Amino acid sequence: MTAPAELSVASIDEHRDDEAQARFDDLIAKDSRIEPRDWMPDAYRKTLIRQISQHAHSEIIGMQPESNWISRAPSLKRKAILMAKVQDEAGHGLYLYSAAQTLGIGREEMMQQLIEGRARYSSIFNYTTPTWADMGAIGWLVDGAAICNQVPLCRASYGPYGRAMVRICKEESFHQRQGFEILLELMQGTDEQKRMAQDAVDRWYWPSLMMFGPPDDESPNSAQSMAWNIKRFSNDELRQRFVGMLVPQAEVLGVTLPDPNLTWNEERQAYDMSEIDWDEFHEVLAGRGPANAERLRRRREAHEDGAWVREAAAEYARKQAAKAATAA
Ligand SMILES: [Fe+2]
Ligand SMILES: [Fe+2]
């Protein structure tokens, strides 16, 4: 009869799990950090893997709309700045893939999910960049929204994620300023340049508000993420904060934010605004945005073109290991 022994092993395991869960809950309650070696509930691990890998994919795909303009930037200085910015985004992707790897998922697996179209990334990067002013609007609005989203993530309960975000946020503020400065220069230029800047703001404003995700009452996972100290503010709170930041900056720039209903509500101490077109958001999310297919095609090509680099690096590592073994 082995049943009783099995039962007791199971109950010891259960007891250990309870203890581990209690330790985890205690760390969260104290607003401490969870580190890779710590026990964590499966759902917490899965949520983080999904969020961090989606975030990494967004950084990598996010290089495309801007790399499109590197060869056409209007001056050597602008070219150098834009190149540095796009390289920063590559770096952000790499810190984040590394952070996700500490949770037990491989880089190769994440990359496969992305190029096979099974992973999500921020839908903002599926919009096109037809004019130079788009570089300004992306920096000001898209990187600006990213900062609002990401500053609270510096305090995310998972250590490697929070620490990666600290460095990323420093670079994002440079991105936001360079975008603002591109728009400022255009707004002080010719009528045509002013129109170009306003047109870019008109096209990027609403998609940048969508970056905060669906309204709070349609965001079912938010409460759990907040209970785990991953997320600190709700989607709508962050969206409000972002709009509050934009209004005075738009005045300095001299651009109009394309929402006739945008007004300060003294009673609510918040901005009233028009309804966001969530149908557009869901369409782009479902892969039917202006550039979804193009973004994935380019990523796949880049992955294939880079195969020789991965093979060469693996071969070099193999040779070094063999040399070390022979020496030993
Ligand atoms: Fe970034
Ligand atoms: Fe950025």
Automatic annotation (TrEMBL):
Its EC number is 1.14.13.149. InterPro entries: Aromatic_CoA_ox/epox (IPR052703), Ferritin-like (IPR012347), Ferritin-like_SF (IPR009078), PaaA (IPR011881), PaaA_PaaC (IPR007814). One of its GO terms (cellular component) is cytosol. It is an enzyme of class 1 (oxidoreductase). Gene3D superfamilies: 1.20.1260.10. GO terms for molecular function: phenylacetyl-CoA 1,2-epoxidase activity. Keywords: Oxidoreductase. GO terms for biological process: phenylacetate catabolic process. NCBIfam families: PA_CoA_Oxy1 (TIGR02156). PANTHER family: 1,2-PHENYLACETYL-COA EPOXIDASE, SUBUNIT A, PHENYLACETIC ACID DEGRADATION PROTEIN PAA. This is 1,2-phenylacetyl-CoA epoxidase subunit A. It comes from Agromyces kandeliae.
